[in-house]
Amino acid sequence: MVESGAEVRYTTAERLPEDLRGADALFVWDFRCTGVEAAWLAADALQWVHVAGAGVDAVLFPALRDSDVVLTNSRGVFEGPIAEYVLGLVLTFAKDFAGTFAAQRERRWQHRETERIDGSAVVIAGTGPIGRAVARTLRSVGMRVEGIGRTRRDHDPDFGVVRGFDQLTRRLPHADFVVAASPLTERTEGMFNASTFAAMKPSARLINVGRGALVVTEDLVAALRDGVIAGAALDVFDTEPLPTSSPLWTMPAVLVSPHMSGDFVGSLPALAELFVDNYRCWLSGNPLRNVVDKRLGYVPTRASGG
């Protein structure tokens, strides 16, 4: 549909400075691409940048933030799949699936009791669409959830209670599971560190499906090694791919996955369809979907508060 009414240039990060000249819109298919900043001086006609991902931190450099260029993301594609993934991780910990798989490989009959998740407490850091989808999914299986976000709310439809980021450390001692689902901003970078890990229960597990830089990796490794927390499931990392030298690969009670919690069979066509729908809005002069507040670093919604 796009090619029938526009000149489409398929490019790479290396060729982007040349291909960006005269372009009105840029579709960043690889949301981790950092080549846009290097090519920015060539953006002489650019009006709109769309990212095929929920996070836009890779392209939200100062020159773009301060420009009049509209930035949109792919909110609406990943929320449900990520919530399902988080539930799967919670069950993996609670039901000790890793232990079951290991015993099966060794042909060892090892009966044991596992944990209930019904009634357990979850703190979700990040009350945007992904955090909300996680909250609804976990509540549906009887878990007690509360949110940590930019704006406090006492009667939130998804979380019940949302507290400000400044209350994170105070709420962590109540949590059996802690889910990091915040966008990466100056305020959230490194929010999970030695201090926050020390506030968690020794039996608590951290699940990160937000951004790798939300967590200070060295502090997490130390907390896991010293038994400060019981485990971690990590789908995102401050360096990706995770280096083979990282101790996280082999630490007990750590689950490592390669930034795949939102990816599902059919996700690529869904991303393309969302862009095409937004392209139609752009051509017709209608408001674009998923416009990012470049000051905040994400798409604000009346209900989310961040």
From TrEMBL:
GO terms for molecular function: NAD binding; oxidoreductase activity, acting on the CH-OH group of donors, NAD or NADP as acceptor. Signal peptide: none annotated. Its EC number is 1.1.1.-. The keyword Oxidoreductase applies. It comes from the Bacteria. Keywords: NAD, Oxidoreductase. It holds the Pfam family 2-Hacid_dh. InterPro entries: D-isomer_2_OHA_DH_cat_dom, D-isomer_DH_CS, D-isomer_DH_NAD-bd, NAD(P)-bd_dom_sf. Residues 12-292 form the D-isomer specific 2-hydroxyacid dehydrogenase catalytic domain. Residues 87-261 form the D-isomer specific 2-hydroxyacid dehydrogenase NAD-binding domain. SUPFAM superfamilies: Formate/glycerate dehydrogenase catalytic domain-like, NAD(P)-binding Rossmann-fold domains. Belongs to the D-isomer specific 2-hydroxyacid dehydrogenase family. PANTHER family: 2-HACID_DH_C DOMAIN-CONTAINING PROTEIN, D-ISOMER SPECIFIC 2-HYDROXYACID DEHYDROGENASE NAD-BINDING DOMAIN-CONTAINING PROTEIN. This is D-isomer specific 2-hydroxyacid dehydrogenase. It comes from Frankia alni (strain DSM 45986 / CECT 9034 / ACN14a). The lineage of its organism: Bacteria, Bacillati, Actinomycetota, Actinomycetes, Frankiales.
